[in-house]
Amino acid sequence: MNGFTKSIRQVFRGAFKAFQTFPASIACALAFAAVTIIRIQLDWPQQEPLNFLFNCLHWSFAVGAIFSLAAITAAQSRYNNARAFLVSNILGVGAALLAFLLMYNFGGTDPAAEGSRYAMVSDLAAARAGAAILVSFISFIIFAGYPKEQSDFARSFFMTHKSFFIALLYGLVIMGGASGVAGAVQALLYRNMSEKVYMYIATLTGLLAYTIFAGYFPDFRKGQIDEKREIAQKQPRFIEILFGNIMVPIVLALTVVLLIWSGKTILGGMKVSFIRLSSIATSYAAGGIWLHMMVAHRESRTARLYRRIYPAAALVILAFEAWALVIQLQKYGLKITEYSFTLIWIVAVAAVVLLFLKKYEAHRIIALITCFAAVFSVLPVLGYHALPVASQVSRLEKLLISQGMLEEDKLVPSVAEPELSVKESITDAVIYIADSRDTRLPIWFDKDMRRNEIFKKKLGFEHTWPKPEFTDPEWAGGYMGTSLYLIANTVDISDYQWAVSPQESYVKGNKELTVDGKRGVYKIYWDMNPSNRIPSLKIILDEEIILEKNMNDYIDRITSKYPPGEGRPHDVGIEDMSVVFETPEVTVMLVFNNVEISVNPHEDVINYWMNLTSLYMKEKP
Fold first, then answer.
1. Closest CA to 548 of 564, 562, 530
2. Is the dihedral of CA 327, 331, 334, 338 positive or negative?
3. pLDDT (tens digit, 9 = 90+) per residue, 500-512?
4. Ramachandran region of residue 269, left (φ > 0), alpha (ψ -120 to 50) or beta?
5. How far apart are CA 125 and CA 131, in angstroms?
6. pLDDT for 172-229, tens place per residue?
7. Is the peptide bond before 413 cis (omega within 30 degrees of 0)?
8. Fewest CB atoms within 10 Å of the CB: 27, 152, 202, 361?
9. Is 511 helix (H, G, I), strand (E, B) or coil?
């Protein structure tokens, strides 16, 4: 028991020591928590105009906290003097200030272009701040592995993991205990206690957990030998068992599966979707390199076997993944998925080659290459936001010029119907470009072409979606679907006498709508969730049913035009989002705001959701 309490005291002693060891980092963390508390205190109407400012502050303090961690560690491990320590702390605060100025002045969205009331932090600005945090954190791990007589990258890498999970465990326990006390106070003493109390507890717990994380690390000062370093870098027995006896066999089994897939690919061709392949390959490459670092100093049989097998097997698998990437690029061009996969593939190939050549010494170089890839991904022109869009614009230009649909920076509707594959490729490129952000587009491109009627007006044919090459509902959770949304447009209702909103009746808890006509009182029932799952409409005139129809015919019409596939949403016009019924007594038009059809082929279940925005009715003479 004394050993247990001693270890707890050491953890909290280290947390308090973090204020002295990493003052700029802890100061940024305190500022981050302060901004969070202010945001919790302000209700949304008060916070909304300041939301952009608060987000900029959050991102900049996060950058400052992690950058300070790396800068101070570098100064202490390389120089160990008061001047270097002071400069490193000033640099940390300066990094936070610089990040804020850049993000606040250049990282906001245009409210008019985005259709919002206030500016928001752009995706690109957030990605660049995230890249800065990642590079700073990897740099901290590198600096913490110095000098080589006491440590290396692999040991520092594990020590950082260990510190993180210790801090996480203590944070969760503190959070659970404090929230339990607050819950007891609310239940027994003060029932009107604000729910914000739990948010305050979470914020302060997060701050304390960060101080525990930073305070767990040993003394990095040059010339100092801290016994705590050896303890922090040592893997406990259960970790050795976890890595050597559980995780290594799992990754080796996955390696065998991927090697068998490579052989099947040679014999039968590519029979798996690229998205599925890229996710598996990314997990295998990143997880495999991570595990190689974790078992770098283990001398068990499984660890040695893994270190020998993984680099060779990874090269073979990566070669076949490159083949899949080339096929994908030939069909659809470069998009974010392909861009990310290409970047990860390059890092993975470089990593396994380095593991062949330099073994343990490769880890630090791999970390540096990862940093370079993170920075490269957010660069102007070459970043994830720009290069894929430029590639798709080039692809679209070639397609349009080949069909005579682009002349002197002006779109010309097609005279002859293009081939199906051409229409699919044009639609695919147009939608991708229209959904892009943070990049310049050619003057002839209209982002409104993501709407079907604008697309048809500009190019002469409707959206034509390429069918998924591989139908793999099991990978997608057993889901296929059709998703339609009504575009903003005018509806000619001059021939109708009444407009009825079914939504109002449901809000009032009444499913019956009534209309007083010359023939009598019409009772209208719209059942959007019946037992047979097909929405239906029923109209009764003076206790006589004059119309009773389900939406089967309408569903057949839209699914023939938009067959259930990958669930890609479509913005469609009124002709696809309305249905008309005729009886001797009335004419009725239903207008839907959105229609969702989901199919689960494994359980043989189909669900329908039709959001009926308006019902228009005309009484016949």
1. 530
2. negative
3. 877 655 544 456 7
4. left
5. 10
6. 999 999 999 999 998 888 888 888 999 999 999 999 999 999 988 888 888 778 788 8
7. no
8. 361
9. coil
